[in-house]
C-alpha cells in the first residue's frame, strides 16, 4: 500500500508543511536580546556580540560554534536555542539537531517546545528510531487536542522519509504508546498503515474497522482493509465486499480499481482482473499497479507482456516494494541476474563541477577502492599519484571519514565528503549502484536494455549511465547531477571487480 499511503499523505502534506515552514521561518535571524546576555559575564557578552557580527558577515559556522560552546559552559538553554536557529537558517540540519539536543537537555522539565523541535529535527534527519522515546515523552504531557495537532505535523513528515518502513514503524510505536488512543480518522488511518508495515495485522484491521464503524462510507479505510485482506489471500469474500463498496462510492479511483482487480485475481477471475488492472494502469501509471498487472499476465502465460508491464513499473519507481517483491518471487530471466553481485571495486574517477551563479568550474581525479561487507561500505580515495586522500566508512545511519589521522562523522556520507574534501562524490548507496541495483528507501527509475541488463538509473537526483563487459561486470559508469546552482559530472572506470 506504499503508493496509496503517499497519495493520501499528499492531501495532508500541504497544510501541515506550510505550518512547518512558517515555524522554520520564525527561527531565522533575530536581533540580540537581553535573554541572550542575561547572567552572562562581560567576556561571554563580548563572545555573543562577536558571534552576531560574524553571522551578519556570513560566518554562520563560527557563530554556531560559539553559541553552542557558551550554552554548554553556562547551561543556558537560550544560547543552545540560538545555535539551533543559526544552523537551521544555514540549512545545516545535522548541526541543528546537535544544538536541539543540547537545548532539550538544558531546558527545565515540563518545557515542551525544545522536545517538540528535537523530535521534528530527528525525523527530518531520518533518525526515526531515535525519535520514538522523546516523542512519546512529549505527547504524554500534552492534552488530547495538542497530541493530535503534533501527530498531524509529524504525519506530514512521513512522506519525506527516505526509508518509509523505518518511518512508519516509528509512527506505529509512538501512537501505540498513547492512552487513550487518538480519535482523528486521518491519524488512525496512518496508524493502521503503520501497523501493517510493522507486521501488526490485527491492530491494522481493528483500527480500520473502528474508522468504518464511525463512518461506513470512509473510502480510504474500506479500500485499505479490503486490499490488505486480498493481498494476504484471506477472507476474500469480505475483501471483495469492502473493495466493491469503495469502488461504487468512487468508480474512477485507480487505486481502488487496482484493488478490485487484485481481489478478482485472488478469487480466480483472471480475465476480469486483467481488464480492471489494465484500466487502472491506464488511468494512473503506478509501479504497484504495474506489479499486479504483470503478475496476472505472467499467470495467464503471457510472459512478454508481463515483463513489459514490469519494465514500465521500473521506469516509474523501481524501488516500489510491491514490484520488487513480485520480481523476486516470480523470477523473470533478467531478475535472476540481479542476484549476482560484486563486493569490491578498484578503479579511477574524474569529477567536474560547475557553479552557474559564478561560472566557476572545479574538478579532481584519482583512484578508489570500494569494499562492501554486509551492511557496511568502505570507500578509499587516492590522489592522481596514488597517495591516500581519505577513507570513508559508511554504516546505516552514520558515515565516518578518516583523513590525516583525524576522524569526522556525520549522518549522511555525501554531505560528509562534500564538506570535508570539497568533492561532490555520491557515496551513499554507491555499492548498490555499482551492482546495477537501487539504494533502498528512495524512489528510483530504472531502464534496461533488450537483454534485461540495467542501462540507466535515476535516484537521489543522480542520473547513472552504465557500460558492462561481456561477463556482465561493470566497465564504466557516468554519474551526472543537475541542480539550479550547477552541474556535477563523475566518471568511473573500473580496473578490477571482484564477486
What CATH first level of the largest domain would be assigned?
Answer: Mainly Alpha
Radius of gyration: 26 Å
CATH architecture of the largest domain: Alpha Horseshoe
Number of domains: 3
Could you tell me the CATH topology label of the largest domain. Serine Threonine Protein Phosphatase 5, Tetratricopeptide repeat
Major sheet: 11 strands, antiparallel
Mean of all residue-level pLDDT scores: 84
The coarse silhouette is: flat
Secondary structure tally: strands: 11
Structural class: alpha+beta
Q: Beta-sheet strand percentage? A: 15-25%
The number of helical elements comes to 22
Percent of residues in helices:
55-70%
**Uncertain ranges:** 5-37
Spatial order of the strands forming the largest sheet: 6-5-4-3-2-1-11-10-9-8-7
Distance between the termini: 35 Å
Amino acid at each position: 500500500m506504499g503508493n496509496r499511503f503517499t497519495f493520501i499523505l499528499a492531501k495532508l502534506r500541504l497544510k501541515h508543511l506550510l505550518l512547518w515552514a512558517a515555524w522554520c521561518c520564525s527561527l531565522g535571524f533575530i536581533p540580540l536580546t537581553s535573554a541572550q546576555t542575561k547572567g552572562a559575564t562581560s567576556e561571554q557578552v563580548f563572545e555573543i556580540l562577536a558571534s552576531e557580527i560574524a553571522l551578519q558577515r556570513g560566518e554562520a559556522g563560527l557563530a554556531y560554534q560559539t553559541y553552542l560552546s557558551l550554552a554548554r559552559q553556562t547551561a543556558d538553554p537560550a544560547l543552545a536555542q540560538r545555535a539551533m536557529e543559526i544552523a537551521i537558517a544555514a540549512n545545516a540540519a545535522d548541526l541543528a539537531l546537535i544544538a536541539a539536543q543540547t537545548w532539550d537537555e538544558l531546558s527545565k522539565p515540563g518545557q515542551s517546545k525544545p522536545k517538540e523541535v528535537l523530535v521534528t529535527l530527528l525525523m527530518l534527519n531520518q533518525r526515526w528510531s531515535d525519535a520514538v522515546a522523546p516523542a512519546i515523552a512529549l505527547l504524554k504531557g500534552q492534552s488530547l487536542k495538542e497530541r493530535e495537532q503534533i501527530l498531524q505535523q509529524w504525519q506530514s513528515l512521513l512522506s519525506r522519509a527516505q526509508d518509509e518502513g523505518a518511518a512508519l514503524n516509528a509512527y506505529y510505536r509512538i501512537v501505540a504508546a498513547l492512552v487513550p488512543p487518538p480519535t482523528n480518522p486521518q491519524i488512525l488511518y496512518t496508524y493502521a498503515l503503520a501497523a501493517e508495515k510493522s507486521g501488526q495485522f490485527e491492530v491494522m484491521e481493528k483500527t480500520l474497522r473502528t474508522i468504518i464503524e464511525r463512518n461506513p462510507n470512509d473510502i480510504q479505510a474500506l479500500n485499505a482493509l479490503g486490499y490488505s485482506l486480498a493481498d494476504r489471500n484471506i477472507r476474500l469474500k469480505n475483501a471483495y465486499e469492502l473493495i466493491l463498496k469503495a469502488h461504487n462510492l468512487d468508480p474512477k479511483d485507480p487505486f481502488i480499481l487496482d484493488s478490485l482487480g487484485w481481489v478478482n485475481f485472488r478469487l480466480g477471475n483472471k480475465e476480469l482482473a486483467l481488464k480492471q488492472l489494465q484500466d487502472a494502469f491506464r488511468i494512473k501509471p503506478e509501479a504497484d499497479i504495474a506489479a499486479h498487472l504483470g503478475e496476472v499476465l505472467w499467470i495467464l502465460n503471457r510472459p512478454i507482456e508481463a515483463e513489459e508491464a514490469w519494465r514500465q513499473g521500473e521506469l516509474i519507481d523501481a524501488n516500489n516494494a510491491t514490484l520488487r517483491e513480485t520480481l523476486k518471487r516470480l523470477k523473470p530471466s533478467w531478475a535472476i541476474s540481479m542476484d549476482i553481485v560484486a563486493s569490491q571495486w578498484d578503479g579511477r574517477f574524474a569529477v567536474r563541477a560547475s557553479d552557474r551563479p559564478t561560472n566557476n568550474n572545479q574538478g579532481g581525479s584519482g583512484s578508489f577502492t570500494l569494499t562492501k561487507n554486509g551492511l557496511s561500505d568502505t570507500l578509499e580515495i587516492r590522489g592522481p599519484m596514488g597517495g591516500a586522500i581519505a577513507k570513508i566508512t559508511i554504516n546505516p545511519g552514520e558515515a565516518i571519514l578518516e583523513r590525516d589521522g583525524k576522524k569526522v562523522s556525520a549522518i549522511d556520507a555525501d554531505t560528509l565528503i562534500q564538506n570535508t574534501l570539497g568533492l561532490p562524490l555520491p557515496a551513499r548507496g554507491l555499492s548498490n549502484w555499482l551492482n546495477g541495483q537501487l539504494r533502498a528507501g528512495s524512489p528510483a527509475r530504472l531502464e534496461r536494455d533488450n537483454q534485461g541488463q540495467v542501462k540507466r538509473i535515476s535516484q537521489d537526483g543522480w542520473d547513472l549511465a552504465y557500460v558492462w563487459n561481456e561477463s556482465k561486470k561493470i566497465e564504466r559508469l557516468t554519474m551526472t547531477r543537475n541542480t539550479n546552482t550547477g552541474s556535477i559530472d563523475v566518471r568511473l572506470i573500473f580496473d578490477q571487480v571482484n564477486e
